[in-house]
Amino acid sequence: MAPYDRLRTDGRTQSLETGTWWYANIAGEAADSFSARVRKRMQRACLAAVLLLAVVYAGLVLTATGQRWENAVLTGRLTDETLAAAHEANRTLQHITVYSLAVAMLVLTVIGMLRRRYALTLAALGTVGVSLFLAEVLKAYVLARPDLAHAPAHLTHNSFPSGHTTVAMSVMFGLALVVPYRVRGLAVGLCALWATAVGAYTVAAGWHRPSDTIGADLLVLAVACGLVALLARRGKVGPARSRRFPLRTVFVIVPFGIAAVGGLGAGMVLLVDSMFVLEATDPNLPHVAYQAGHGLAAGASAAATLVLLALLRHVDLDAVPTPYRLTGTIVPAEEAGPFPTEADHEIS
Fold first, then answer.
1. CA 336 to CA 330: how far, in whole Å?
2. Number of C-alpha atoms within 13 angstroms, CB side, residue 55?
3. How far apart are CA 142 and CA 129, in angstroms?
4. Is 167 within 8 Å of 208 (Cβ atoms)?
């Protein structure tokens, strides 16, 4: 039975099979097929991420209120962070270089080649390459930062979206695409610790504003969802076998859920407090603004990780087409066509 078919009505089970190129591209694209559902889900998630990216840019970059708040975040960093913490943040970010990026892409390539998953390897490398390319193009040529808050010159440069966060998150998302389904949660959890820390450190080091980090998270999420939608369109996805992974829940889902809810929740409360409650001359404004920005940056990275895992839940990206095999009674081709003649064999 192909992964795109319904189970038999008598409850019998068969080993999963995939069809020919015709079956994957025609029957696999039926309105209620598994691959079609995954494709539509990923397309909607990609569109939602792009819309949220536009909202973040418009709200925090193209308004005077948003610019004043983010300037307060950068100012508050100097009053809130200790010297040791600032040095640690800078050391962590300085490790993200062209050489480290090349090593990360080499690791993704080796994993994909060893598993002989060439389409997944291209998707993983595409997640990194396309995300970084779009981030640099958007920052340099498309998205501007007009000076609406009359800030000092060192606070007016455009840094949306964050290149460092884009690198970290895209490597983590690429790893999620190329590793086997059974170890996806563990691999993503370990890599996401580093990616989330990078997003938070960009704010702690003063290299980027909170909007830069959030925008990078949404950009990488949109690219990854778009590439998975292409895989689904070509019939390269299938339903994963029903298995429980309690360790993934305990060590990945729960901690990142707490980080996402806590970071975004506390960040939004402090954001409202610093933007609409405290006066511009209040000495507590930079400190509160920095706490809000730091929480939002960490929470957004954790939330993007959970969103990707949720979108790929029960989705196995290792579906490899094999020659279609007829089952049941063999009849002349002009009568049977490409499908079995059993009454309970339904094509979804």
1. 8
2. 7
3. 18
4. no
- The residue behind tokens 């309105």 is 31
Residue corresponding to tokens 């895992």? 309
CB 7 within 8 A of CB 347: no
262, 297 contact by CB (below 8 A): no
Q: Which residues are CB-neighbours of 225 under 8 A, at least 6 positions away?
A: 42, 43, 45, 46, 49, 308, 311
For the residues 183-212, what does the mean pLDDT come to? 89
**What CA–CA distance (Å, rounded) separates 285 from 247?**
41
Which residue intervals of 234-339 are DSSP H helices? Answer: 246-248, 254-272, 285-311, 333-336
Give the residue ranges of DSSP H helices in the chain: 21-25, 34-60, 64-80, 83-94, 98-114, 118-137, 163-178, 184-204, 210-233, 246-248, 254-272, 285-311, 333-336
Q: What is the dihedral of CA 129, 131, 136, 139, to 10 degrees?
A: 180
Report residue 17 CA to chain centroid gap: 29
Question: Both tokens of residue 170?
Answer: 């895209």
- 3-state SS class at 194: helix
What distance in Å separates the CA atoms of residue 302 and residue 280, rounded to the nearest whole number?
31
Paired residues of 238 in beta bridges: 316
Task: Give the residue, 217 or 274, on which the prediction is more confident.
Answer: 217
203-230 average pLDDT score = 94
Phi, psi of 11 (to 5 degrees): 85, -5
